[in-house]
């Protein structure tokens, strides 16, 4: 089971934001990799992967997004929130089948 | 450029059958798996199942086993999700997503197909 907090995150433009994700079991695969990813779903769009395997930014993703964590606890940080960052953020684990966190809705105060 | 292009929106009645599609381009289709994700109105994402394109080996989320069928046609780089008898509760947006190594590395997603089931 994947949990996220907070589920709603109003932020001020230019300010940092942080989303936590926890798993009920370790996400370390038998091959040593940790398949924990972060996806962004903007309103009316399909999900887009931002971060793969905990801390690797996908191509084209602004460097204000960063991921960290290990084992069962992970964090997505946005260093300075911009208007285009509004949407729902999901942590997704691909180690044990595939499950999504419930999502964190980020909007502007 | 990697693209997954899904078929258009559908409006069906309970009991109808339906098959929606997901066409891949910009990558070697047979090197990947294609999964399907359900998003019910106003809700989060739910993984439904996945198919290994090279040999059509398929896995389903246990709660959906027998409710849907996932298939693929490598001659036209297309994966499918089908229902034999729709229910109103199948109303949702359905996304296809590409993955490497089973469910390990989901990356690109299709634009979604809205399925509405109503009498």
Mean pLDDT of chain B: 95
Number of distinct helices of chain A: 0
Query: Beta fraction of the residues of chain A?
Result: over 45%
Gyration radius of chain B, to the nearest Å? 13 Å
Order of helices and strands of chain B: EEEEEEEEEEE
The helix content of chain A, as a percent range, equals under 10%
Describe this protein with a few key phrases.
heterodimer, A: 109 residues, mainly beta, 7-stranded mixed beta sheet, 4-stranded antiparallel beta sheet, B: 119 residues, 0% helix, globular
Q: What's the arrangement of secondary structure elements?
A:
The complex is a heterodimer of chains A (109) and B (119).
Chain A: E1 2-5, E2 8-11, E3 17-23, E4 36-41, E5 48-52, E6 56-57, E7 65-70, E8 73-78, E9 87-93, E10 99-100, E11 104-108
Parallel strand pairs in A: 2-11
Antiparallel strand pairs in A: 1-3, 3-8, 4-5, 4-9, 5-6, 7-8, 9-10, 9-11
Chain B: E1 3-6, E2 10-12, E3 18-25, E4 33-39, E5 46-52, E6 57-60, E7 69-73, E8 78-83, E9 92-100, E10 105-109, E11 113-117
Parallel strand pairs in B: 2-11
Antiparallel strand pairs in B: 1-3, 3-8, 4-5, 4-9, 5-6, 7-8, 9-10, 9-11
């Amino acid at each position: 089971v994947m949990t996220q907090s907070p589920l709603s995150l109003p932020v001020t433009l230019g300010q940092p934001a942080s989303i936590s994700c926890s798993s009920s079991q370790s996400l370390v695969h038998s091959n040593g990799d940790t398949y924990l990813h972060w996806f962004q779903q903007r309103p009316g769009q399909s999900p887009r992967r931002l971060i793969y395997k905990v801390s690797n930014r996908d191509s084209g993703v602004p460097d204000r997004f960063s991921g960290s964590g290990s084992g069962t606890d992970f964090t997505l940080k946005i260093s300075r929130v911009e208007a285009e960052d509004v949407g729902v953020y999901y942590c997704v684990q691909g180690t044990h089948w595939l499950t999504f966190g419930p999502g964190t809705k980020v909007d502007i105060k | 450029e990697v693209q997954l292009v899904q078929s258009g929106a559908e409006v069906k009645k309970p009991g109808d059958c339906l098959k929606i599609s997901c066409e891949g381009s910009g990558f070697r289709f047979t090197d990947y798996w294609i999964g399907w994700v359900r998003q019910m109105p106003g809700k989060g994402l739910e993984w439904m199942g996945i198919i290994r394109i090279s040999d059509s080996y398929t896995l389903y989320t246990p709660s959906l086993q027998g409710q849907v069928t996932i298939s693929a046609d490598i001659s036209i780089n297309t994966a499918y999700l089908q229902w034999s008898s729709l229910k109103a509760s199948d109303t949702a947006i359905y996304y296809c997503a590409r993955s490497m190594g089973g469910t390990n590395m989901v990356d690109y997603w299709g634009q979604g197909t809205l399925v509405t089931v109503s009498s």
